[in-house]
């Protein structure tokens, strides 16, 4: 019996392991570097999108290098790529480069620069190995087709992505993560060299690819354009889904992992040798586009967890359908590296549009519905009901029926637009949605009519309210978020929301315009603390506030006090300086507003500068880990006077932060008390939890002893180590039961 099949099998295992190791490392490094940069960048969704844009650009560069390398003999390719891997390895272990702080308004460019310089060399080298390894695998005529290795590559990427939040971050410090990644990189280098050796030993049996694959016919410009589009739309949709979900639907922890994971899994299905799953999902994808795409314009929490599930299902089905079409249009192995280069360019274009262009030209995440409509125009449409192809239906009658169906869809969407915001609508909203989906199935015979139906469904499922908000100019978008400013004439109230989270409100009644509302009411921890300052520190207390919001806290100031606000987003400051919210102008006209990351800015203030420091800088419901670490607390306590008080806002729907603050307080030797405020007037005030910390336990006792008496409770017993810049994980503190409800 010949040893050739056995040897080919062993070779396949070697190449498979190499692909898996490289892809695992590639997607393990992404969240690791983003976590390293957190103290500099904060936790806005666009930070993750910027990181993804950098990685897609580096991936494109790696694929271009792999395509260029294909002009050489395999032995030469091995020497060149091995040398590149060794040179890139000299930059290990991974760490951030030292850059000057981002200029105001330039974060969208500064963040990619920081990440690119920090991780660029090793990411570039590792990203090239996927197409190279497939090319080297296919160089043996008996090896078989290489496309299944690409499916395995994305499976490895998915594994790396999940391993970080579930294993690496909870169990290892950043230093240990970086060292572990460097060891994995060494293993990858050995695997790559082994692949080179295997193919070098069989140099006489290589497939003759020729110069740049010249013996294979070049793809047409139209074919390349289709490749680009089929790669760009899923890539952009993955990022837009992340922004849409975390900003407007359900700002839950770790939610960003899900869209990227589904995107990677779509390649595993679309490029697998077994074609049945890809065909089935592609066949059902148009139905999912009508059902899930209807929520693509929804905002302000419409749909809750159900909308999250549909959005994720939509992304997965669209990505599988478009990537399956991409697979069907693939060239022969001779053009493998060119195919992956174009595909990578499409992915980078989708990321560029979503992460860089959209935030600068749109006031809301309009890129999301636009990409869903683009998917409807590109995906394979195989009618589930072939009624238009029947011989007894004339073309004119079929067109008339199509137009009647579209008119009916418009009527249903018009009825649905008011029901989606009515909690009592119940079954009627569901029935109208089902009818819209049924019409979508009937219209699959016409791509134009089907795409129009998807747009109609979007308008009905909350899109009408989103369009109206933009038409009225209620929204503003910056690098740090999407803000909605809304007036309620009947209640004489103006509100500011970041995604689904209320950031403050002000009464439009002049007699009540200076009342601090929402989380800052008279029974809130911060309200009690700031009102006690004259009694605790005299009339000239110095107060620092991290997070400006609407400026509500300004009207808790007393005459003679010195106030300083720290705000990362210039858009938020503009709301207080242009008269939109007048708290700052009316109550603390002399207050200084410092723009930039508060933790970095506070490092520059003189020691003991503040008698009270308020930390109120949450972005939507995301957790700014870098503001709740041992190092951050050291910055705050340095800025506080000897007996100063630190007031930290930890209200959150999904994370229990009491134990986090308890561990930090114990580690720093600080006294701490907690205040949970459950106001009776829920129209004006919002339940909140504030933590007061001080070096002086007497100060906290005096704070709790004010009249009328308010309950301040002890923090729970500290469990585990405190969060640090080097090691922090939110997994142990997630309120999992909250994730099953509508926020």
Could you describe the 3D structure shown?
The chain is an alpha/beta fold. Helices cover 55% and strands 10% of the residues. It is built from 23 helices and twelve strands. The strands form two sheets. An eight-stranded mixed beta sheet has the order 7-6-5-8-9-11-10-12, sandwiched between helices. It is globular. The N and C termini lie far apart (65 Å).
Q: Quick one: how many beta strands? A: 12
Low-pLDDT stretches: 203-214
How big a fraction of the residues is strand?
5-15%
Round the Cα radius of gyration to an integer and report it.
Answer: 29 Å
Report the mean per-residue pLDDT as an integer.
82
Organism: Novosphingobium mangrovi (ex Hu et al. 2023)
Transmembrane segments: 12-34, 46-66, 78-96, 108-126, 147-167, 179-198, 224-243, 249-272, 284-302, 308-327, 339-362, 368-385, 397-414, 426-445, 452-471
Protein name: Fused MFS/spermidine synthase
InterPro entries: SAM-dependent_MTases_sf (IPR029063)
Summarize, please.
This protein is of the alpha/beta class and 743 residues long. The chain is built from 23 helices and twelve strands.
From the structure above, extract its key features:
SAM-dependent_MTases_sf; transmembrane helix; four-stranded antiparallel beta sheet; Fused MFS/spermidine synthase; 23 helices; membrane; 743 residues; eight-stranded mixed beta sheet; polyamine biosynthesis
């Amino acid at each position: 019996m010949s040893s050739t099949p056995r040897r080919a099998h062993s070779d396949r295992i070697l190449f498979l392991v190499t692909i898996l190791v490289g892809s695992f490392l590639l997607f393990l490094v992404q969240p690791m570097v983003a976590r390293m940069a957190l103290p500099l960048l904060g936790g806005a969704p666009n930070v993750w999108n910027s990181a993804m844009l950098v990685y897609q650009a580096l991936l494109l560069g790696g694929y271009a290098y792999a395509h260029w390398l294909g002009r050489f003999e395999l032995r030469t390719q091995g020497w060149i790529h091995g040398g590149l891997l060794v040179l890139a390895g000299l930059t290990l272990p991974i760490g951030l480069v030292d850059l000057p702080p981002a200029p105001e308004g330039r974060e969208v460019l500064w963040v990619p620069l920081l990440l690119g310089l920090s991780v660029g060399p090793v990411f570039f080298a590792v990203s090239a190995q996927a197409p190279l390894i497939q090319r080297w695998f296919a160089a043996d005529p008996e090896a078989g087709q290489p496309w299944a290795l690409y499916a395995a590559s994305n499976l490895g990427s998915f594994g790396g992505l999940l391993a970080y939040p579930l294993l690496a971050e909870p169990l290892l410090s950043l230093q240990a993560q970086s060292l572990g990644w460097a060891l994995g990189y060494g293993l990858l280098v050995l695997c790559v060299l082994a692949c080179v050796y295997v193919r070098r030993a069989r140099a006489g049996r290589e497939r003759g690819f020729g110069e740049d694959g010249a013996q294979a016919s070049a793809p047409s410009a139209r074919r390349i354009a289709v490749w680009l589009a089929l790669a760009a739309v899923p890539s952009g949709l993955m990022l837009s889904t992340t922004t849409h979900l975390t900003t407007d639907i359900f700002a839950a922890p770790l939610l960003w992992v899900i869209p990227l994971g589904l995107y990677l899994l779509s390649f595993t299905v679309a490029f697998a040798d077994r074609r049945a799953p890809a065909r089935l999902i592609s066949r059902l994808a148009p139905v999912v586009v009508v059902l899930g795409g209807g929520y693509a314009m929804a905002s302000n929490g419409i749909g809750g967890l159900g909308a999250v599930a549909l959005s994720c299902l939509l992304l997965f089905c669209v990505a599988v359908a478009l990537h399956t079409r991409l697979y069907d249009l693939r060239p022969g192995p001779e053009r493998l590296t060119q195919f992956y280069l174009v595909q990578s360019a499409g992915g980078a274009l989708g990321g560029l549009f979503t992460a860089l262009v959209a935030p600068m030209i749109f006031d809301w995440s309009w890129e999301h519905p636009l990409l869903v409509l683009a998917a409807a125009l590109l995906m394979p449409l195989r009618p589930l009901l072939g009624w238009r192809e029947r011989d007894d239906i004339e073309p004119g009658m079929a067109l008339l029926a199509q137009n009647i169906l579209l008119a009916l869809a418009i009527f249903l969407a018009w009825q649905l637009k008011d029901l989606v915001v009515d909690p009592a609508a119940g079954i009627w909203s569901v029935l109208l949605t089902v009818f819209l989906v049924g019409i979508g199935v009937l219209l699959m015979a016409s791509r134009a009519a089907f795409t129009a139906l998807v747009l109609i469904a979007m308008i009905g499922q909350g899109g009408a309210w989103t369009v109206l908000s933009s038409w009225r100019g209620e929204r503003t978008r910056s690098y740090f978020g999407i803000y909605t400013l809304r007036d309620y004439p009947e209640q004489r109230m103006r509100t500011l929301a970041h995604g689904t989270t209320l950031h403050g409100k002000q009464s439009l009644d002049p007699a009540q315009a200076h009342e601090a509302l929402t989380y800052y009411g008279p029974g809130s921890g911060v309200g009690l603390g700031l009102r006690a300052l004259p009694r605790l520190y005299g009339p000239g207390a110095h107060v620092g506030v991290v997070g400006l919001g609407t400026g509500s806290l300004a009207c808790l100031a007393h005459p003679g006090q010195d106030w300083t606000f720290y705000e990362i987003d210039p858009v938020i400051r503009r709301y207080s300086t242009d008269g939109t919210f007048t708290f700052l102008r009316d109550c603390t006209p002399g207050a200084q507003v410092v723009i930039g990351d508060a933790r970095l800015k506070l490092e520059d203030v003189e020691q003991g500068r503040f008698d009270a420091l308020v930390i109120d800088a949450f972005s939507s419901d995301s957790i700014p880990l870098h503001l709740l670490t041992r190092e951050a607390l050291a910055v705050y306590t340095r800025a506080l006077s000897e007996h100063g008080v630190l007031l930290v806002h930890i209200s959150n729907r999904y994370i229990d932060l009491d134990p986090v603050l308890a561990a930090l307080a114990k580690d720093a030797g600080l006294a701490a008390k907690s205040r949970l405020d459950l106001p009776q007037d829920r129209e004006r005030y919002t339940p909140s939890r504030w933590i007061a910390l001080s070096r002086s336990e007497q100060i906290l006792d005096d704070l709790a002893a004010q009249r009328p008496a308010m309950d301040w409770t002890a923090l729970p017993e500290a469990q585990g180590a405190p969060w640090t810049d080097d090691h922090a994980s939110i997994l142990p503190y997630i309120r999992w039961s909250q994730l099953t409800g509508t926020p």
